Amino acid sequence: MEKNSKAKVKAKAQTASTKSFYDPKVTLVTKEGLQKMFDELDNLRNCQLVEIAGKLKEAVAQGDLSENAEYADAKEQQQMVLLRITELEELIKRAEVIKKKSAKGDAERVTIGCSVTVCNMSRDKKNETYLIVGSLESNPFENKISNTSPLGRELIGKKKGDELSINVPAGEMTYRVVKVA
To answer: Which fold has domain 3-97?
Structure first.
């Protein structure tokens, strides 16, 4: 990771406002998620495009491009990489970094960027801990749920001891907030 991208992440770091939680024009990300986007962008620009340019140069050196599969493949790869670069640049431009609220009152309520432990009252009554993130970084296999998911949306603003219910295809699920961190 280069110094320039670290400075860009630091410059972009701002607390996500409640208004931006559901704003489709805003990309909510953690500081780590934003750094991953900068790293991917750097890799695409400085490694993959250079590699593809080499493939294109080799394919052009072979002569007739009309029946050159290597040339067609390299051009397709180039288009996909350029499309991803454009997508990342737009996401970064709209990024708002999620920060944990530090005020005592805010720290007791579920918000984007916090970890929340809930007890599934409808099933096995086991505790499950989730990190509330923006939709771009959600990953159920890592227990990262989006603020726009049914559970994430209902958890926002809740505090320890609160109960909530959500409708899922299997029926209604009830949860109790055990811990907010």
So the answer is: Helix Hairpins (1.10.287)
Residues of the chain with pLDDT under 70: 1-24, 100-107
Residue 49 vs residues 2, 71, 85, 141, 172: alpha-carbon distances, Å = 18, 14, 10, 31, 49
Q: Indicate the pairing of strand 27-29 with strand 95-97.
A: parallel
CATH 3.40.47.10 for the 104-180 domain, yes or no: no
Q: Check residue 27 and give its pLDDT.
A: 85
Integer CA distances (angstroms), 75 to 19, 51, 71, 80, in order: 42, 12, 6, 9
What DSSP assignment string belongs to the chain? --HHHHHHHHHH--PPPGGGGG-TT-EEE-HHHHHHHHHHHHHIIIIIHHHHHHHHHHHHHTS-STT-HHHHHHHHHHHHHHHHHHHHHHHHHTEEE-----SHHHHTB--TT-EEEEEETTTT--EEEEEEE-GGG-BGGGTEEETTSHHHHHHTT-BTT-EEEEEETTEEEEEEEEEE-
**pTM for the full predicted model:** 0.69
